[in-house]
What does this fold into?
Amino acid sequence: MTYAEVVRRIARLMYVRHEFRWADPSLKRLTGDFIGSIEEPFTPIEGQASLLQNYPDLYNPFTTTEKILAYYREVHSTHQCTGYTAFPSPMLAARPEACPIFISPHDESFKFPFKKDSLWQSKDLQAVVG
It folds into this structure.
């Protein structure tokens, strides 16, 4: 997946569009931090400020992410490296305060997200995609 595809997928899976809210407040922060982590290597001007300045900018993540993705053209053609594909950043996904997200590959880090993922979506059926 390209970086742009991942950002769009994050918004689609973690934001409850028909209720105009994030499935969990921690997911807005996680999304903002991931966008910040991809802005840095793709910023054409060294020292340029991030386009995403505040988490409230993600009140409507679809509009905000499309604006950011339009600015960074390379994110549409640059694929994530193999070690980065389980989640945008394993460090972001492993935050203890964050709602569980994607399951990591079957390696030594598998136990943490697997146990953390204890049917959290069953607590909020409106957040289940599809």
Summary: The chain has a mean pLDDT of 78. The chain has one domain: 3-127. DSSP finds five helices and two strands in the chain.
